[in-house]
């Protein structure tokens, strides 16, 4: 049985998130130097030694977030495993390709994007206020880090940041230098770059983007599987993502044989565990931006705690290898 204090330790409140402003190689590059990176569950892909990790329990996937003021962008990069974003707040433009001009899509709050693995991608806040996007990354080790487009590494070097072959950042303007025997991260060659596809907007959006309002309509009677082998976005990235709404929520308890994660996007949600809805062992209330890790084999349920719009993303690992998701 999990006590309320034990469960509270598995909740990361939006207001308690601890940002890292030097997480990646473009942290000093104009246009990218105001972004904040958050590692909520798992080690993430940060290249900074001072990145705070809120929950270290392995889940089979990582949970993170990116917060950026208007006109701030995240530079072009690629991952070896899945990278899924849903918009918590703001208006965001995602773009992809070697130079970021192969395709793009604009996402609003609640929209979700299962970005194809193996392509260069970036994103920027095109709204008028500070915005936040929540991220799900495949695997416990998030695939061994980030692969940067060559121009990103070159621009960063001009502003004092270099990346070692071990994936660690060094700030030359602070007098830091690579240890003896450690080289720079190799820049991808022209031959290497041929392995990165350049899909068009028309090719990507149908199979990789789901709009929040469409998902809400589909979740009018039961939760909708958004990402999964039989999901709206068909994929096996190592986890499944579902959307639960007021209309599809239930007070019936259920459990998973793996840790799962609850992430409200709209409204406040009451989570109860063990016992019954009327007599639970414990309960907690989640708000948008909060993240809750539910232990495996724990009976629990979640339903709206207040009137009004309510929607919650639910993530559970599947154990599938997080391989390439772009099929052309």
From TrEMBL:
Domain of life: Bacteria
Entry-linked Pfam families: Cupin_2 (PF07883)
Domain Cupin type-2: 70-133
Name assigned to this protein: Cupin domain-containing protein
Organism field: [Roseibacterium] beibuensis
Lineage: Bacteria, Pseudomonadati, Pseudomonadota, Alphaproteobacteria, Rhodobacterales
């Amino acid at each position: 049985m999990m006590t309320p204090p034990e469960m509270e330790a598995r909740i990361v409140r939006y207001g308690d998130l601890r940002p890292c402003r030097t997480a990646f190689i473009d942290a000093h590059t104009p246009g990218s130097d105001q972004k904040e990176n958050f590692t909520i569950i798992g080690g993430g892909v940060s290249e900074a030694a001072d990145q705070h990790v809120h929950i270290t329990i392995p889940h089979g996937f990582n949970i993170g977030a990116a917060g950026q003021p208007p006109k701030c962008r995240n530079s072009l990069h690629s991952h070896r495993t899945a990278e899924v974003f849903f918009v918590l707040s703001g208006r965001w433009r995602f773009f992809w390709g070697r130079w970021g001009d192969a395709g793009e899509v604009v996402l609003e709050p609640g929209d979700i994007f299962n970005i194809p693995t193996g392509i260069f991608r970036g994103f920027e806040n095109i709204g008028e206020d500070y915005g936040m996007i929540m991220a799900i990354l495949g695997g416990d080790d998030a695939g061994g880090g980030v692969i940067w487009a060559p121009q990103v590494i070159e621009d960063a070097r001009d502003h004092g940041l270099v990346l070692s072959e071990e994936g660690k950042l060094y700030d030359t303007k602070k007098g830091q230098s690579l240890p003896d025997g450690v080289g720079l991260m190799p820049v991808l060659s022209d031959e290497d770059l041929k392995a990165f596809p350049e899909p068009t907007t028309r090719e990507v959006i149908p199979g990789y983007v789901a709009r929040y309002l469409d998902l809400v309509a589909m979740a009018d009677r039961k939760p909708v599987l958004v990402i999964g082998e039989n999901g709206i976005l068909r994929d096996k990235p190592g986890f499944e993502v579902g959307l639960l709404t007021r209309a599809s929520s239930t007070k019936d308890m259920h459990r998973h044989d793996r840790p799962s994660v609850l992430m409200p996007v709209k409204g406040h949600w009451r989570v109860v565990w063990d016992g019954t809805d009327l007599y639970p062992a414990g309960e907690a209330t989640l708000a948008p931006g909060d993240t809750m890790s539910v232990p495996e084999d724990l009976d629990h349920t979640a339903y709206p705690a207040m009137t009004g719009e309510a929607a919650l993303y639910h993530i559970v690992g599947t154990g599938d290898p997080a391989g390439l998701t772009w099929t052309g």
